[in-house]
Structure formats: C-alpha cells, structure tokens
Design goal:
Length: 261
C-alpha cells in the first residue's frame, strides 16, 4: 500500500512538471532528482520506467512514460546535455540514443496490450527553437496517419542519399534518406545530418531529426527525416509534430486492436 502511494505521488509530481507550461529543466529535474536517486537507493527508477547506466560510464539514460499519454515514451540521458547540439553526440564512443530509443517500442506495445505495426511508430528530436525542454530527449510514440500515408506514397523517391521530399510534409520542407536495416542501432541520424549539411554542433541546434520505420519492397528499413528552422514560414524544426501522442492511428478502423481489449 505504501509503495503504491509513493509511486502515485511521484507520478503526480512528474505530471505537474511535464505540463505544457513546465519549466525548461523539468525533464532534467525528474530524471536527476527523482528517478536516479530512487534507482540508486531503492532499485526502483520511479517515476521513470527504466534507468540504464553502464558501469563506469556517465552515458546512461532513463526511459520516462508521459503521464498524460500512455503511449508516449521519452528517452533522457542521465548526464546533462542541452539537446541535439550537444557536443557529446559528435564524440567517438557516443551513446546510440536513437538505437536505444527504438527499444522503447516494446514498452508502448505492453501499454497497448498487443503488438503494434512498427511502421505506425516514429522517433523525433526537436531543434533548440522547437523544443520546450533544454535536456536532450528523444520522443517515441505513434506516427500521424497523414504523415504515414504521405511517406508511404513517397517511398519510391527516397534513396540512400539525402534529398528533399517531393512534397512538403505538414507544410514544411524536409530532406529524407533511407537506411536498409531491421533495427535502429548503428544508424546515428544526427551524425548523418551533420555530415551531409557540414554542420558543427552549434549549427545543429537549428535542425530537427526524425527516424521513421517502414518497408521498401517488403524489406525493413528506416526513413531519416530532417528540417531546419526557417526553411519555411513558421518552421521551428519541431519534428515532434510528425508524431501523435494520443495514438489515434491505433484506434482507427484499420487498427488491429482496441486499447484495453
């Protein structure tokens, strides 16, 4: 009973910190001041779902479930990192945060209570101008249905080289490329964007990056997407907009399972 009350209190605090008007260090406060001490002293990462900390390394991460959206998961490094522009992301031996974030899909499926087609999911990291939190974090949740349909239609135009999508995505210009492999580990989307556009870490602050699973001729792969602040009117490179935290795509008539069923 006491444990349930304790966890409930932590979730209440987390929900308060992560509301739309939350201070910009809310994610860091949750992971540093709640999740990590609880994991260290109680072996319970609450209110996080998980803490992964390699021995002798400061490059671990926490997994947080958004208390407002049960199918929205967030990966947050356990060391202070401002965001996509963090110099740590360009160093040798950097942690493959996108690769680990892709593993969070199993937690989403567990929350849903059934398998979810991988091509209905997506991961995203926003630019410095398109985010509300100044701690590096990667979103994993459902893809918007309209975004999914457009990307499926434009797959024939996406190859191994970065190229603009034929049509604007949600009224913004996006570059895309594909990677043919079944898992996200080893793709390093941010490094790929930095290499192609010849960006230093501070310049990366203007870019948002998404990684979208799909298939090409029946073979599993990923679409890498990026956009830059200012490429279009009103574009803040908040690529999180490609995702739907409410996961309406899972409750549409084509969905294979109804939540709670």
């Amino acid at each position: 009973m006491r444990s349930r009350v304790y966890r409930g209190a932590l979730l209440s605090v987390t929900a308060l910190l992560l509301t739309g008007c939350a201070r910009s260090d809310a994610l860091w406060l949750v992971t540093q001041d709640l999740c990590q001490p609880n994991y260290h002293y109680r072996r319970d990462p609450a209110p996080c779902q998980q803490i992964y900390q390699p021995p002798g390394s400061g490059q671990g991460f926490s997994v947080l479930q958004n208390p407002r959206y049960q199918y929205h998961f967030i990966l947050v490094p356990t060391q202070a990192m401002a965001g996509i522009e963090s110099i740590a992301l360009s160093r040798p031996g950097r942690t493959d945060y996108f690769g680990y974030a892709w593993l969070m899909r199993y937690r989403l499926m567990a929350a849903y209570g059934a398998d979810v087609p991988e091509d209905k999911l997506g991961m995203a990291i926003n630019s410095a101008w398109g985010r509300s939190q100044n701690q590096l974090h990667i979103h994993l949740t459902c893809l918007r249905e309209d975004v999914r349909r457009q990307l499926q239609a434009e797959r024939p135009y996406i190859n191994e080289q970065w190229r603009p999508l034929p049509d604007r995505l949600l009224n913004h210009t996006y570059y895309a490329r594909r990677v043919m492999q079944p898992a996200a580990m080893g793709i390093y989307p941010i490094a790929s964007v930095a290499r192609y556009f010849h960006l230093s870490p501070p310049q990366l602050a203007e870019y948002g990056v998404a990684l979208i699973p799909t298939t090409f001729s029946g073979e599993k792969g990923f679409i890498l997407l990026t956009t830059r602040r200012g490429w279009d009117k009103g574009n803040r490179a908040s690529v999180e907009s490609l995702l739907d935290k409410g996961c309406e795509i899972l409750t549409a008539p084509s969905a294979v399972h109804a939540p709670g069923g």
